[in-house]
# Entry
Amino acid sequence: MLEHLPRGVGRALKDVRPGLEKVVFNDEVAAGAPDCIEVTSSAFEDGAALPVRFTADGDKLSPPLAWTGVPEGTAAVVLLIEDPDAPAPAPLVHTIAWALPGADGELAEGDLKSPAGEGQELSLGRNSFLGAQYLPPDPPPAHGPHRYVFQVYALDAPLDLHGKPIRTQLVHAMKGHVIGKGSLIGTYERV
# Structure
């Protein structure tokens, strides 16, 4: 969708970015939780470029992810993917999966519902474009590199959420329940 924006718009908005400090990982809701969960992908290394197949310019599939080190006593795991470099006041939400099993786990390529397919049956919240699915990276042309923060949270209780919650509802429900966290960053730039 954003690939059709004129390059001049991307250049004009180059410095408009909320920044990493605004992702939930750095929010007060998760600030006191230990960074004990290792989040990895067989498709890219931490800080490296996402393969095009996982973006709006490729197959629009969700990438494979794995997480280990989930603390004992975890009742549920949350996966949240945010882009802190979107030209907006807050990070752009790409995925909310809010009721994953409370243990080490993984998602295979394409397991998240996306424009490419139905994926697994998971409890998904709404992304920033209000779809309950994986929103493939789609940065504006000439806006520079974007970081996509794949965040995993261990919770000491299942979340009291229903339907397809948005980011603010998720964060409110997580408050006081985060007992571990971890993250992985992939980058993508449309040139």
About this structure: The helical segments are 7-12, 28-31, 167-174. The first strand starts at residue 38 and ends at 40. DSSP finds three helices and seven strands in the chain.
